[in-house]
Amino acid sequence: MSQKPSIPKGTRDFTPQEMANRNYIFNTIKDVFRLYGFQQIETPAMENLSTLMGKYGEEGDKLLFKILNSGDYLSDFDKDKLDIIEDLTLQKSRILENINNIEFNNNFDLKNFIVNNFDNELSDIVLKTLIVENIVEYDNQNDEIINISNEDLIPKLNLVTHQTITEIVKNKLKADFGIEKGLRYDLTVPFARFVVQHQNEISFPFKRFQIQPVWRADRPQKGRYREFYQCDVDVVGSDSLLNELELIQIVDEVYRRLKINVVIKINNRKILSGIAEIIGEAEKITDITVAIDKMDKIGLEKVNEEIASKGISADAISKLQPILKLSGSNAEKLEQLKVVLTSSEVGLKGVSELETIFGLCVAMNVQTRIELDLTLARGLNYYTGAIFEVKALDVEIGSITGGGRYDNLTGVFGMDGVSGVGISFGADRIYDVLNTLNLYPENSLENTQILFVSFGQKELLYSLPWVKALRSKGLNAEIYPETAKMKKQMSYADNKRIPFVAIVGENEMNAEKVMLKNMKTGEQDLVSLEEIYEKLI
Fold first, then answer.
1. Torsion of CA 93, 98, 99, 102, to 10 degrees
2. Strand partners, 224
3. Where do the DSSP E strands lie in 275-385?
4. Residue 289: enclosing H or E segment and its boundaries?
5. Which of 474, 525, 516, 472 is nearest to 498 (CA)?
6. Which of these, 412, 371, 414, 364, lies nearest to 393 by C-alpha position?
């Protein structure tokens, strides 16, 4: 019985038309990233689990796709892995053969035998084992063997060789292939690892963008997938708030080009830390931010219940309410926060940073609406300053872009004092928004521009040089590869939305031309190669 084809929940296939639409998104975003001087990198789909764990908070860690080190390694080893086994196995066979051929006499030099037969990694282990097992007496002062138990030497050498090489095989496999791994949860933590690992190869401030898939073991639902693309842009090695301004300008430019109406929501983790401080729950900052970040999904009452479940006092929750309900313009909210956070140095620092960012946006005439939202927390532990989310105004969907400032992320990889800020465009949600609003340009499909069809084998061969010539000028040209019925060939052009068809028959060959048909208007003209080029460019 044949198996019914399927894919995992939370993943999707994309047709050529859908891929053309997605490439429209990717290319638009790439073009804007490059305008601001960002350069592209890539990182592996999987990272060592130790790289990922503990960077996203408790809830984020639960959503990591872990790659289990179970099963039979030998059943699906690739060549590189097999080479390690093969080399060590051959080495062991050679050593065992040499051991069994040992001839004891007054000139037998065991130490020299060990050095010549075992590499450095093994020779010390073998000699020390023989000493511990009392097979060999050793003079440490003079660094020489003074007595050998000939009767036990060969069986013991055999045993030690077998055990030692087997153990080294296990250790190599564990070190090279057995480290626990996970599929990347986002592109920011792998980027921090990249910066530390390649710090001597890059210039700071380092401006990078990255467009790759990420994976989260989330419950699939509308607008939420287990595999999805992120388009990240980050700058590290600079504390300047001009970087935050540039990210906002990038958001403004990208969504203007995509014709999506959005609002940029902004907050600052320092403000949230200050709020936690003044309500007397500074140690519970993570619990508070994770809860209030869900405000637009579950409402204030449920947020309060979640905060209370974390052991936060009723008095602290009561003090939190008027802060979460602050209203007015961005400037008015900031003025109110200055009063509320008077006793919190870190909170006031956050207010000052946002004042600077808002002022820069006004000075640079950013057109997209920017809104201070104190419920915006972004539940990722690594954010330390400004945080952003972008929401589409005409479609009910979650945030389509998000990010923020992180001052300590590279520190967990041993590189302190490197501040960074970045944002991530959720390509799959943007794709869903464009689909809903039907905002793709008509020519988003990178399609064949002309198809050559023919009545017979001679005509088909006549078409080949024409196709080659058009391709050499950068035109997407295709030839129907069989001498099928003309209806079938024309249907192929229709199904692929090819705008022009070049028809080749005996008359066209005699005139050294082709009949060019406009598939949209139905008009036909007998044309030369140069005339085709003029019509298609």
1. 170
2. 221
3. 369-372
4. helix 285-292
5. 516
6. 371
